[in-house]
Design goal:
This protein is an alpha/beta fold. The protein is built from 16 helices and 14 strands. The longest helix is centred in the N-terminal third of the chain and has 18 residues. It is globular. The model has no long low-confidence stretch (mean pLDDT 93).
């Protein structure tokens, strides 16, 4: 039944491969009666209710798209901590790993018209255990679609390395998708990347614009970043913000820059800032009962907020967490944070799907992946 499955790899980390796969599966479900999903090799894993460890992306896809296969079938092989050493020491059997992947693909592909296979990182990831993305694609007999960062020269350079790896393993690169392209450069990138790829006879299948919301962290992300939990406003763990502001100015200046959808980072001892935020919150509530400041707080410093301040924040139900580091360190950590899409973050999942679907040429994709691999 399965005639045009394909493997999705990226040119590097944090390029948006999973985001792209969400849009691909959603778009394909509108064109096929059944679409399967497979993550042959996973690294970041979670434990299911049945006690099995599976790749976290598999849970996301199964839950959102209501896929019929089990998480265990969609995530046959994991690389947990210490796996590489065990493999090199001979405690892991390579044939057993490949058999699991083949069997999983056979089950999923036989039950669906098309299967999207998500790789792990760039094409070379997994080489030390002889299971890199190109090798897995070759083993399954499918072509590869490469997701590259939005750009031209640097993106093409990254593509060159990954295309070379695929060709080394005799795997066809069926197409390229550019992701997170700045809107004012999208048409230029689309035109000239198409020309550049022509030398390899590889089509450009999509040019997805940058979307700030998809890169914006939620309070849940900050909980994980700082290894702590919200002290107030727990029901708003998935709240996102348009602005993240470090407040170290006078309260008079701060009052003039309080806007909705803003995350405030300030020392827990700056009670004047906290109270000014609460005052603006309640003023808005009184004037417009149906509206909300939709703010959040990260309070910093050696000493946590006083109980009296904590109670006032709880009364407003503002999501707030305390981290025992300086505001400077907190902002530095936030700046280096990489935000991933989570299963429970339905708003972000829907945004990703809508964005990717709109900018993928599905006719070209199906034509490129339906041909036999070289």
């Amino acid at each position: 039944m399965n005639t045009n499955s394909f493997f999705v790899a990226a040119t590097g980390q944090n390029v948006g491969k999973t985001t792209t796969c969400l849009g691909l599966v959603a778009g394909l479900q509108k064109r096929h009666q059944s679409v399967g999903f497979l993550k042959p090799v996973g690294q970041e894993h979670i434990e299911t209710e049945s006690g099995h460890r599976v790749d976290k992306d598999v849970v996301l896809f199964k839950d959102h798209f209501q896929l019929k296969e089990s998480c265990e079938e969609m995530s046959p092989v994991l690389f947990p901590r210490g796996f590489t050493r065990d493999y090199l020491d001979g405690r892991v059997n390579h044939e057993g790993l490949t058999a699991k992947i083949r069997n999983a693909y056979q089950v999923i592909s036989s039950q669906n018209e098309i299967t999207v296979i998500e790789g792990t990182g760039h094409t070379g990831v997994g080489s030390i255990v002889d299971l890199n993305n190109a090798q897995v694609a070759k083993m399954l007999g499918v072509g590869v679609i490469l997701v590259a960062p939005g750009g031209l020269g640097s993106s093409f350079d990254e593509l060159a390395l990954n295309v070379l790896m695929c060709r080394h393993h005799d795997v066809k690169v069926a197409g390229v998708i550019l992701n997170r392209v700045l809107e004012d450069k999208r048409e230029m990138a689309k035109e000239y990347m198409t020309k550049a790829l022509a030398r390899w006879q590889i089509p450009l299948l999509g040019c997805i614009p940058y979307n700030a919301f998809l890169s914006s962290p939620s309070m849940k992300d900050f909980e994980l970043l700082f290894q702590t939990e919200l002290l107030t406003g727990e029901e708003f763990r998935l709240r996102h913000f348009k602005h993240i502001r470090l407040v170290a100015s006078s309260v008079e200046i701060y009052k003039s820059i309080i806007v909705p959808h803003q995350l405030i980072v300030t020392p827990a001892g700056r009670e004047d800032i906290i109270l000014a935020t609460l005052t603006r919150f309640w003023d808005m509530k009184i004037a417009h009962p149906d509206e909300d400041l939709k703010t959040g707080m990260i309070l910093t410093g050696k000493h946590p907020p006083k109980d009296s301040i904590l109670e006032q924040i709880k009364r407003a139900n503002i999501p707030m967490l305390y981290v025992p580091v300086s505001s400077f360190i907190a902002m530095k950590m936030i700046g280096s944070q990489i935000t991933k899409i989570r299963t429970e973050d339905v708003a972000k999942v829907r945004e990703a799907i809508g964005l990717v679907e709109k900018y993928i040429d599905f006719d070209a994709l199906l034509s490129a992946t339906n041909s036999k691999t070289d």
